[in-house]
Every structure is written in structure tokens, then in C-alpha cells.
Design goal:
About 20% of the residues lie in helices and about 25% in strands. With about 150 residues, it is α+β, with helices and mostly antiparallel strands. It has a four-stranded antiparallel beta sheet, sandwiched between helices. The longest helix has 13 residues. The chain contains three helices and four strands, in the order H-H-E-H-E-E-E. Strand 3 and strand 4 form a beta hairpin.
């Protein structure tokens, strides 16, 4: 009798029609009013050159690491990681500057593959910093910065 009653309860639960109460309705998802069109769309599943091979085939008029550089960075990353890569570069080189603002680069998909190249050189008189972000697919320069500082004589 108990097994029959239990199976009756389970059966009625399984075949119960859903109710249209507030608790049982699924939330309505927000649907964007327009689709985002990127000039540089997602290409995260495509294969591109390794960062070292890319650097060696790159035109030296576009970018070249400093001779006898203290630090060189070559990375192939997603565009959304550029801010963190630039921040890490500046932390490793003790260069204090404002964080890079990518909010104006809404035409680049966050998962777009890019090359981040950076070089740092310091001697007794001078300090040099530079970085460049190049699109992996089109090899277009997306961002870049360079800085020179004369060291104070003590």
C-alpha cells in the first residue's frame, strides 16, 4: 500500500502541468535592440603565427626591440587581455603611468587575437619604453606607445 501511494505521488508530480504563476515562469532575457558589428570580429578559433615567428618576420620599420634591452615581451593574447599585459609590462619596468583605456576600442571584439610586443632598455643616462599591439589576422597596428626619459644625475 505504501509503495502504491508513493508511486501515485511520484507519477502525479511527473505528469503535473506547469502552472503560470510568478514563481514558475522563466525570466525573460534582455534582447539587445541592435547587434554589435565589429570591424575586427572574434577570431579566437583561428590559428596564427607564434609570437616569436611573427616578430622575426615583422618589418623592422614597424617595430624592433631595443638593442641590449633589459626586458622584451612577445605575446599572442586576446584583445581583452591587452590592459593586463600593458600593466604587467609597466610593473616589471617600474614605469608609472595611467592605465590604458580600451573603452574607445569597441570596434574590436574582446576575444580577437592580437600580438603584444614590448621592449624596455635602461642605462645610467636614459630609459626607453615602447609597446605595440598588432592584430594577428590583418597585421594592422591597433595600439602603441613609446616613452623616453632622461635619468636624473645624482
Amino acid at each position: 500500500m505504501q509503495v502504491f501511494f508513493l508511486s501515485l505521488v511520484v507519477t502525479s508530480f511527473i505528469f503535473q502541468q506547469p502552472q503560470d504563476s510568478v514563481e514558475n515562469t522563466a525570466p525573460i532575457l534582455c534582447i539587445p535592440s541592435r547587434t554589435t558589428s565589429y570591424k575586427y570580429p572574434n577570431n579566437q578559433y583561428q590559428s596564427f603565427l607564434t609570437e616569436n615567428y611573427f616578430y622575426h618576420q615583422l618589418d623592422r620599420a614597424i617595430y624592433e626591440e631595443y638593442n641590449e634591452a633589459t626586458l622584451n615581451i612577445r605575446q599572442k593574447i586576446a584583445f581583452k587581455e591587452v590592459q593586463k599585459a600593458e600593466e604587467t609590462f609597466h610593473l616589471k619596468t617600474n614605469f608609472i603611468r595611467e592605465k590604458i583605456d580600451l573603452s574607445q576600442h569597441t570596434f574590436i571584439h574582446p576575444n580577437r587575437q592580437v600580438y603584444f610586443l614590448a621592449s624596455f632598455k635602461q642605462n645610467n643616462q636614459d630609459t626607453y619604453y615602447k609597446y605595440l599591439v598588432i592584430d594577428a589576422e590583418t597585421q594592422t597596428i591597433l595600439l602603441g606607445s613609446s616613452n623616453y626619459q632622461r635619468n636624473n644625475d645624482n
